[in-house]
Design goal:
Chain lengths: 278, 248
């Protein structure tokens, strides 16, 4: 069988808060990633991952396990302590993008990745209209023609099922579910090859959650965008992801097909997680 | 096409003080193109676990599952990377589960269409075949646009089967595909399985139903005390009928 090449992959990614000491450098199994001696937090520790074209990779784990920190590191909201990450479309996957110039980082954020945060305040400017929020992303990627940008904004809002007449409304007056829709349309505005989603349905009503998840799935099907979806909710992971990584204390403790993770969890922590679902 | 060697599965329950649950031990057999192997055995003997290990919903504890792909290459399913398994599930290996879990908020027709379009079938053609298969498994037109979460057990199972067969997999794993069906839908489903066999699909199926076994199976293996009984025998329905008639 022909070997698939990932769209994005990471190697030995570590994010540490604190200097570390002899004890925690040699003990990898720290409870909650916290060193009992020097109190350094190993939020992400030696994480390897691959995301293949068009797939959804789920990341699941308890609060504080490092899921968000990993996503933030990939999107440059957080500096990695060490490690490497690559994109197949960026210098043919030969350049570690974690240490590039801030100009290059801006380029990557605007062309190569989209991010959807749990909190829409982080992804949207609440005092700009929804159209302007999208246009901002289009301009950042070199868009100049106002007419075309308006057309594209309408197209994108339509795609996420927001009525066109709300183009000029500020997302601040929208419901939580609608805000997530605007955030999603902004994140896919420049059709990036990969989308990062951090707990995008947490805090929404169940019926609204279902609609947002359906939307994300239909986008993934139609556009074939690969996605990294972080959630502490196994039900979300079950519905959305092809493969799943389980994080605990900053480390990946188990990784596999989502049906395997759910039906035949091998790691003790995954077993605990799954048993709480049933 | 499929060669299973010394396959074993046990489950270690870390959250039950590492209790060990036995699935099955040292199972070996081969499955060929156009033939169906029927696995029988008492409840709880590990039949579904065996199928799930082949499909890799379960991770085998030891042993190998060699599968010869359409391109001639051989993959050990027991040790393959998840991306390889995903690619094979998309293109070559189908599975009909014992308990059907439906995709929420997608209509029966759209499930069958998207199964095909995800594999590159053009939308118009996909719709045409989806209708054909829904008719074949006897799901009435009034249900085509409904969400299957509201379907009866038998309707769900028939949709499940149509969804697995519509892609014409090279290897098909069946877990009691006729269990919750009435006589006439059983007939439809068995005919579809026979058609697919004729097209060369290799099949491994778990069955309780003697009629289904006699109609469909080329070989029959019995699982007993977590092992496959070595005295497998070839099924030949006509011969069987004659033998019975002769009072054997
Ligand atoms: N800037 C920071 N300074 C110090 N510690 C931090 C910082 N950011 C994150 N951490 C710590 O790193 C660990 C991982 O946090 P992270 O936000 O990645 O967890 P998470 O898995 O996303 O959790 P949740 O499910 O609650 O969102 C936590 O112990 C957190 O307190
Ligand atoms: Mg988080
Ligand atoms: Zn320390």
């Amino acid at each position: 069988m022909e070997r698939k090449k990932p769209v994005m992959w990471g190697r030995h990614i570590t994010v540490r808060f604190g200097e570390g000491c002899d004890y925690c450098r040699t003990h990898t199994n720290l409870e909650k990633g916290r060193c009992p001696k020097c109190h350094t937090i190993w939020a992400v520790r030696d994480v390897d991952f691959q995301v293949y074209p068009g797939e959804i990779l789920g990341i699941v784990g308890e609060s504080g396990s490092g899921k968000s920190t990993l996503l933030k590191t990939l999107y440059f909201d957080q500096q990695a302590t060490s490690g490497e990450a690559y994109l197949s479309l960026y210098h043919e996957g030969k350049e570690n993008f974690l240490n590039v110039s801030s100009q290059q980082k801006r380029y990557l954020r605007n062309h190569m990745m989209g991010m959807v945060y749990q909190n829409p305040m982080l992804g949207l400017r609440m005092k700009l209209s929804s159209g302007a929020n999208i246009a901002e992303k289009l301009i950042a990627a070199g868009g100049r023609d106002a007419g075309r940008m308006i057309d594209r904004s309408i197209e994108l809002l339509h795609h996420v099922e927001i009525p066109t007449e709300r183009l000029r409304d500020q997302p601040r007056v929208f419901s939580g579910g609608m805000q997530q829709r605007v955030q999603i349309s902004k994140a896919i505005a420049n059709t990036p090859p990969i989308l990062l989603l951090d707990e995008v349905t947490t805090g929404l009503d169940l019926s609204v959650q279902a609609k947002v998840l359906d939307l994300i799935r239909s986008i993934q099907k139609e556009l074939g965008i690969a996605m990294l979806i972080v959630s502490h909710d196994l039900a979300v992971i079950r519905m959305m992801s092809d493969r799943t990584m389980v994080m605990l204390g900053g480390r990946v403790v188990e990784e596999g097909l989502t049906d395997q993770i759910l039906e035949d969890p091998l790691h003790e922590y995954t077993q605990t997680l799954v048993s709480s679902l049933l | 096409m499929l060669q299973i060697q010394d396959l074993s599965k046990n489950f270690i329950m870390h959250i039950r003080s590492d209790a060990e649950i036995h699935g099955f031990d040292h199972i070996s057999f081969t499955a060929e193109a156009g033939k169906l192997i029927a696995i029988t055995g008492p409840s709880g003997c590990g039949k579904s676990s065996l199928l799930k290990c082949i499909y890799r919903t379960y991770t085998p504890t030891s042993g190998d599952v060699y599968y010869t792909c359409a391109d001639g290459s051989v993959v050990n399913l027991a040790k393959a990377e998840p991306w390889e398994i995903i690619a094979l599930r998309e293109k070559e290996i189908g599975y009909v589960s014992q308990f059907f879990s439906v995709i929420p908020r997608v209509s029966a027709l759209d499930i069958l269409i998207s199964t095909q379009t995800a594999r590159g079938v053009e939308a118009g053609k996909a719709k045409e075949r989806a209708c054909e298969y829904l008719e074949k498994v006897g799901i009435g037109k009034n249900l085509w646009d409904m969400y299957p979460s509201t379907f009866s057990g038998g309707e769900k199972q028939r949709l499940n089967i149509a969804n697995a067969l519509i892609t014409k997999p090279r290897l098909l794993l069946l877990d009691e595909p006729t269990a919750s069906l009435d006589a006439s839908s059983k007939e439809w489903v068995m005919n579809m399985i026979l058609d697919l066999k004729r097209e060369g699909t290799a099949m491994v199926g778990v069955f309780h139903d003697e009629i289904a076994i006699r109609t469909l199976a080329d070989w029959r293996y019995e699982m007993r005390e977590r092992k496959i009984v070595p005295t497998d025998y070839k099924m030949d329905y006509a011969e069987q009928v004659l033998a019975e008639a002769a009072g054997f």
